[in-house]
Amino acid sequence: ENNFGRHITEAMYKACLYAGIEISGVNGEVMPGQQEYQVGPCVGIDAGDQMMMSRYILQRVCEDFQVYCTLHPKPIVEGDWNGAGMHTNVSTKKMREEGGIDEIKKAIYRLGAKHQEHIAVYGEGNELRLTGKFETASIDDFSYGVANRGASVRIGRDTEAEGKGYFEDRRPSSNADPYVVTGKIMATISEDVDAPEIAPLDKAEA
Predict the structure, then answer these.
(1) How far apart are CA 170 and CA 35, in angstroms?
(2) Residue pair 123/174 in contact by the 8 Å Cβ criterion
(3) How many domains does the chain have?
(4) pLDDT above 60 for 206
(5) Coiled coil located at which positions (predicted)?
(6) Which of its termini does the chain have fewer beta carbons within 10 Å around, N or C?
(7) What pLDDT is stored for residue 1 in this prediction?
């Protein structure tokens, strides 16, 4: 009874499975009525295709339940409420190989060097969400850390422990265009440039 909208999320999950969407999980989020789902892993442009189709299915399922679903990153501005993002997990073949953590850090440094370019295409209304509070980083500053929800980019504990894996860009808003986001990330991390190193945030801030 405390997980508002769970029945809608579960119906959407089943509809996505039936449609062939690579949906890998659903869960209730911090704000009442806020629900999250994960799509992937996907390769290349398929990530955008899968996300856009899942959004369409979500809206159609909501119609059936006669409820309204918003993708606004901060639907309730007043008060202590979390926003909503389209957290994007990223890895390349090199990142998943032995010693991949070094490739992950290189990619993060490149993302940091172009922080504002990414913010510009990471969705509308993101300035209301990325305040440095409620498990977000400030929109004005770039940061990364291990298991730190307050960072712009997060490295998981498993990735750090294994020395390979993936990273999570937590900046894209819930209404961001997945084609633009994935394209921008890949364009930036694929550049053959050595960006300045960035010191990670303290794990204690997680």
Answers:
(1) 17
(2) yes
(3) 2
(4) no
(5) none
(6) N
(7) 67
25 and 125, same domain (yes or no):
no
Q: Do residues 17 and 85 both lie within one domain? A: no
Amino acid at 13: Y
Domain that holds residue 187: 73-206
Taking CA atoms, 205 is separated from 31, 50, 148, 179, in Å, by 21, 33, 6, 32
- Cis? peptide before 172, omega within 30° of 0: no
Give me the pLDDT at residue 195, please: 87
Of 69, 103, 125, the domain-final residue: 69
SS3 26: strand
pLDDT in tens, 119-173: 999 999 999 999 999 999 999 999 999 999 999 999 999 999 999 999 999 999 9
Same structural domain, 196 and 172: yes
Domain end residue (candidates: 51, 69, 87)? 69
Locate 21 and state its tokens.
């969407």
> To which residue do tokens 């922080």 refer?
115
